[in-house]
Design brief:
The chain is α+β, with helices and mostly antiparallel strands and 176 residues long. It folds into 2 domains: 2-103, Peroxidase, domain 1, CATH 1.10.520; 106-175. The chain has helices at residues 2-15, 23-39, 41-48, 54-67, 72-83, 90-104, 120-130, 165-175, and strands at 107-114, 137-144, 151-155, 160-164. Strands 2-1-3-4 form a 4-stranded mixed β-sheet, sandwiched between helices. A hairpin with a 4-residue loop joins strand 3 and strand 4 (160-164). Helix 1 (2-15) crosses helix 6 (90-104). The longest helix has 17 residues, at 23-39.
Amino acid sequence: MIKNIIARRYSIALINAFKPAELKTLENEVDNFIKFLQDNVEIEEFLISPIAENKFKREIISKLAEGLKICEKFNNLLIILIDKDRIYFLKDICREIISQIHQRLDIYDFELLTAHTIDLETIKKIKKFVNRYVSGEVRLKYSIDKRIKGGFLVYNKNLAINASIENSLSNFKREF
């Protein structure tokens, strides 16, 4: 999709302006910015509105940059997004920035689905299991999905590990 291409291009351009040691700080700034927009939906709606004038959008971004302690490079990107009428893709670009940072720092984000609540020890074991397939830090976003009858499903955009009971039984059935 076009939004993915746009998000990737802007995020890579921003990340290339930082040294590897600075990427964690940038991640925190982008994450805080995303959280702020989630908590203040009306501000995000104003920023992406095609009706609102760009000069007012730039003023809001300047105030946000000051209040959220956003670095100059990230602030400049936000201003460019306004000036180039790309601010509509703001959330996609921010998510892609974090994704690109994680790629550079060998951090792998996965979704973890289970049928029931699991304890921290089990989550650690699942992380260790996933580390057989990727080298780097594994981060799991955990949620419950009642469609899974037992076991777990771990996935991201590049890898899926289906350790559900249903999948194990299906594989067992195919063998016979």
